[in-house]
Specification:
homodimer; 329 residues; TIM Barrel; three-stranded antiparallel β-sheet; 13 strands
Chain lengths: 329, 329
């Protein structure tokens, strides 16, 4: 048995830079037609020059694969002229509340001060991608941030807002309240709960932001995704860290799922008996919500088991050492 | 300024065995007059022979310090004859639900099957120490186990039941419902919440079972302890693991607080302006609830800052690298 997917898209991807970029980019470029590239480098992507330099590095790292890096800018107060120069070269602007995840120290501290930029983005039809967490108790952060999502969605009704990597039943419910709001969901949040991270032994390779939540939350995500929700797109949030930054005091947040994402998604949808909804989640919803036309690319998978390596050049991936029932042909 | 404490007692302590025992025992023996020794070794302490061998090893490891190891047995179905032989040599029997923490694989699976042993313990006035967690969602486990505590407390009204290392407001409230129920609280659960463990970078040295809970839960523990609750005893749950078993995939649960426990407790009670309640928490409540008379031993602390070493022979302690304002003279 085989399955063919048109233009898989990863709508939330961290590629990092330098050696790490060269190591991880091919995993995504091999299987995906495109991906939304996060801008939170050590020196965040927030100018024309940085954007083009980074895009060139990414294309070089992707070797000969047919792959479109949909670039994003790191949110700051942008002037109209800057955005006019940039808008045809980006898919959106990514907003991080200050300090909430890896390399977000320069993020937004005062949400009242950003209205002018949001207004420009609305006028110019530039989507707003958001890491939606407050700075409250770790398990309440996403729910608490819904107040901010609501304010922005109501104030800017034609701004396309993407709730990135949602993890809670509350966020899924919120999504249906506003036509201008979309969401991405990761592979790992469809599979794990906080029990997998700290319920038995502690697993640093499953530690990410937002942290995995309760079984009830995971069930809400699964029902929405497997049920074919039209406003939810696949975004892996694949985020590589070298093992010495994971298996240590002060473990970095991030799950590296790029090497297994497409295969495991097929396995999940197959197990749930809803393979017919996979094309929407992994491609069509993103094309529709963002209005993008990715490169023509098809990948075919067969039901052939393979074992995920323990290590990819010093980075441990999601599902390391385990067997996946589907392989890309 | 100095403060002198009579007979500090640690009513919940893991000393392990072999080299680790020899490394960690002196930290407790130096400052405490005695400690309740947990029986969950690789081969659990559940016989006369194992108990005495372990006690001898502990006394040897404690060198010349005046220190009473209050021994416990690992819960199983014991016969009357066994308990008659053992009862004068133990302070209680420690019950672990199967698989709930480090080396608890041989714990209790069926709570209906343990009534006979509990009945014997009640008759012989042998206290029951309990790791009170269900096998549910990691943050719900303590609350869910209260049903079991209630059944045992009601069925055996003169059995002394100790809720070990409680972490939730619900458990604190439960404590007041039954005269025959006591509790221990750790140092670290007075200080940290889940935010410290996974709210920023992930901290394996703060990972323990039960996991630290919410700010509201911590506040309930602090109010009870600093307010002088008479049924709550200090139990560090100090549990050493070598760094290679903490800073790794599959990090072991346990916070090693023995090297800093007494000093940090003085600092906490001092900061809260309730030093007058420290003697109850760290000694008198245990003497009263268990009816024990520990060895005569006093320790004196002065307000002299010291920096906690980063490492104690391959084991990283709680508060490593930080400064504590009080030192044992």
């Amino acid at each position: 048995m085989t399955i063919t997917i048109d233009a898989p898209l990863d709508m939330h991807l961290h590629l990092r830079e330098g050696d790490m970029l060269r190591l991880v980019a091919p995993f995504s470029a091999r299987h995906c037609a495109g991906a939304v590239i996060m801008p939170n480098l050590v020196d965040p992507i927030d100018s024309f020059e940085k954007l083009f330099r980074y895009r060139s590095e990414i294309l070089a790292a992707c070797q000969d694969h047919c792959f479109e890096p949909y670039m994003t800018l790191f949110f700051r107060a942008y002037r109209r002229k800057e955005l006019e120069l940039l808008k045809d070269h980006i898919i959106g602007i990514k907003l991080y509340p200050a300090g909430i995840t890896t390399q977000s120290e320069n993020g937004v501290k005062d949400f009242d001060a950003i209205e002018e930029t949001l207004s420009l983005m609305q006028q110019m039809k530039i989507p707003l991608l958001v890491h939606g967490e407050s700075n409250g108790f770790v398990l309440d952060r996403e729910r608490e941030f819904l107040v901010t999502y609501r304010e922005i969605a109501e104030s800017f009704p034609s701004l396309h807002i993407i709730m990135e990597h949602i993890t809670t039943a509350d966020a899924v419910a919120f999504l249906d309240e506003f036509e201008n709001v979309s969401a991405t969901i990761t592979l790992h949040h469809l599979m794990i709960t906080l029990d997998n991270v700290i319920g038995d032994l502690m697993q640093p390779d499953l530690f990410c932001k937002p942290v995995a939540k309760t079984p009830r939350d995971r069930e809400a995500l699964r029902q929405a995704v497997f049920g074919g929700h039209k406003k939810i797109m696949f975004g892996s949030d694949s985020a590589p860290h070298p093992r010495h930054k994971k298996e240590c005091i002060g473990c970095a947040a991030g799950v590296f799922s790029a090497p297994v994402a497409v295969e495991l998604l097929v396995q999940l949808f197959d197990e749930e008996g809803c393979l017919e909804n996979l094309p929407d989640f992994i491609s069509a919803n993103a094309r529709q919500r963002y209005g993008i036309t990715p490169p023509q690319k098809q990948i075919t998978l067969s039901r052939t088991p393979w074992q995920v390596p323990d290590d990819h050049g010093g980075v441990r991936s999601f599902y390391a050492g385990k067997t996946i029932n589907w392989s890309v042909v």
